[in-house]
From TrEMBL:
InterPro entries: Ald_DH/histidinol_DH (IPR016161), Ald_DH_C (IPR016163), Ald_DH_N (IPR016162), Aldehyde_DH_dom (IPR015590). Keywords: Oxidoreductase. Belongs to the aldehyde dehydrogenase family. Pfam families: Aldedh. It comes from marine sediment metagenome. This is Aldehyde dehydrogenase domain-containing protein. GO terms for molecular function: oxidoreductase activity, acting on the aldehyde or oxo group of donors, NAD or NADP as acceptor. Residues 28-489 form the Aldehyde dehydrogenase domain.
Length: 497
């Protein structure tokens, strides 16, 4: 049975309009030029929906709507608590409609239902977390200085723009827009062309929650048209991008030309350092779960497995066994642990990396490759791979963005830290040891935005997440600092006679 036949009534209803329209100024609207594009269910390689394709003219309309909303009494004139009420109402609706959001996300990305569930749950959590922070923030702080009455006020910037990727479409929409909205900005989102649907369903919920027209706008479309137009728009006051370093640099250049502050989150090549006081089976299982989460399409996942030599002979068979046991299937099937790659392009990209890695001298401890899943012959499925070899191999240095890990043995702590830091990225790494003194030492020495101890992919609310070096700039997401990134400071000063 095709996934299309298993749709929840609410999802079927949402997908009924052909095309699914974009959302500008509180209205569902076609593209200015009537253009459309297709988004697929990667589990079947089949059409999921046709979607209105936004281009520069639609971005212009969306930014104008967001500017108008920012200047309006309905949003700009709203008290902080009223804004926070709207954010909580939206979170309520995300929870009430979570089954539909989860199924839609699972279908558009190809991810298993429990993983889509985590993402949707996280959206509600972030909306509430930033709503509460907004309520408890002081927006006018006195400054203690002689002979002047001085204070600093915090005010929103205006229109904040977001260009988002396809690996966590709804979660990243939530993480990114929650602080911006809570701070009082208005937003324009350009979701990824592979996965535009969940951000659009979020707009339907925002409308129902009572968000005024123009506060949240979503313009689906391609990067070099809609995305480039949004990044270069002189009407935006802030920009946040998540995706590849190559595109991040283009966006930063566009924003630089207009002096618009920008946040970039650009992926990584996360390491996991496993010391020999750990149970190899337990860690192998956890790292397998990490590298197969979302079919390895996770910026911060553990892809370089650095294993202390004494543990190597036990760790490798445990890891290959755990990776072989991962149940691959369509995202909507209850037994599935790992879904397809998001697209044929991404599948080919990963297979190409594995091929190049082997040519570059890596040994395959577990050969990964394309695989056909019963009843879903046209899905973009792939099996996990485990390579080993020199640390300068292309597969040990570059982001593969698939279920592929690269294992390297190490001798002592200093060697492990040097291996971790021999990398152009700096997003997130983990250290695994029962010795908490050593764990904290290594955690501090690894150069990245996050160091995790005895776990990987850990996201408690309020903990900052963002990379350094090739992994990004501009302060990241997920913390109180992110909220303040969406408020500009203004000093007010009066001489005292
Ligand atoms: P991408 O960087 O091209 O796409 C991300 C977003 O940027 C999409 O919304 C896309 O439409 C937009 N975009 C593309 N070109 C643009 C342009 N010229 N101006 C403005 N916006 C533009 O990433 P892609 O090609 O889909 O994936 C390639 C690789 O990038 C992946 O294999 C992975 O290594 C990395 N990546 C990292 C992500 C992360 O979470 N940090 C997410 C997605 C991709
Ligand atoms: Mg899709």
């Amino acid at each position: 049975m095709a996934a299309r036949d298993k749709l929840l009534p609410e999802v079927a209803e949402f997908l009924k309009p052909d095309p699914v329209q974009m959302f500008i100024d509180g209205q569902w609207t076609p593209a200015d030029d009537g253009g459309t594009f297709e988004t697929l269910d990667p589990g079947d390689g089949a059409l999921l929906a046709r979607v209105a394709e936004g281009k520069a003219a639609d971005i212009d309309r969306a930014v104008a709507a967001a500017q108008k909303a920012f200047a309006s009494e309905a949003w700009g004139g709203l008290a902080v608590k009223d804004r926070a009420v709207l954010l909580h109402r939206l979170a309520d609706l995300v929870e009430a409609h979570s089954d539909a959001l989860i199924q839609l996300e699972s279908l558009d990305v190809g991810k298993p239902i429990p993983q889509a569930d985590f993402d949707v749950t996280n959206v509600a959590l972030m909306l509430r977390w930033y709503a509460d922070l907004a309520v408890h923030t002081r927006y006018s702080e006195p400054i203690a200085t002689p002979n002047f009455e001085a204070r600093q006020i915090r005010v929103p910037y205006g229109v904040a723009a977001f260009i988002l990727p396809w690996n966590f479409p709804i979660l990243l929409a939530g993480w990114n827009i929650s602080p911006a909205l809570a701070a009082g900005n208005t937003v324009v989102i350009k979701p990824a062309e592979n996965t535009p649907l969940s951000a659009l369903l979020l707009c339907a919920l925002a409308k129902e929650a009572g968000f005024p027209p123009g506060v949240i706008n979503v313009v689906p479309g391609f990067g070099d048209t809609a995305g480039a137009a949004l990044a270069a728009h002189t009407g935006i006051k802030r920009m946040a991008f998540t995706g590849s370093p190559a595109v991040g640099k283009l966006i930063a250049s566009s924003c630089g030309a207009n002096l618009v502050p920008v946040k970039l989150e650009l992926g990584g090549k996360g390491a996991a350092v496993v010391f020999d006081d750990m149970d190899p089976k337990v860690v192998a299982q956890k790292l397998t779960e990490s590298v197969t989460l979302n079919t390895g399409q996770v910026c911060c996942t553990a892809t370089r497995w650095l294993v202390q030599k004494k543990l190597w002979d036990k760790f490798v068979p445990a890891a290959t066994q755990a990776m072989k046991s991962v149940k691959i299937g369509h995202g909507l099937e209850a037994t599935t642990q790992m879904g397809p790659m998001v697209s044929q392009t991404q599948r080919e990209r990963v297979l190409d990396y594995l091929e190049r890695g082997r040519k570059d001298g890596a040994e395959a401890l577990l050969e990964g490759g394309p695989v056909t899943v019963a009843d879903h012959p046209d899905g973009f499925y792939i099996t996990p791979a485990l390579l080993t070899g020199a640390p300068d191999n292309v597969c040990a240095q570059e982001e593969i963005f698939g279920p592929a890990a690269y294992a390297i043995p190490f001798g002592d702590e200093a060697e492990a830290v040097a291996l971790v830091n021999d990398c152009p990225y700096g997003l997130a790494n983990s250290v695994w040891t029962a010795d908490l003194g050593r764990a904290n030492r290594v955690a501090e020495a690894m150069v990245a935005g996050s160091s995790w101890i005895n776990g990987h992919n850990l996201f408690p609310p309020g903990v900052p997440f963002g990379g350094c070096n090739l992994s990004g700039l501009g302060g990241g997401v997920g913390s109180a600092a992110t909220f303040f990134d969406y408020l500009r400071n203004q000093s007010i000063v009066r001489p005292l006679e």
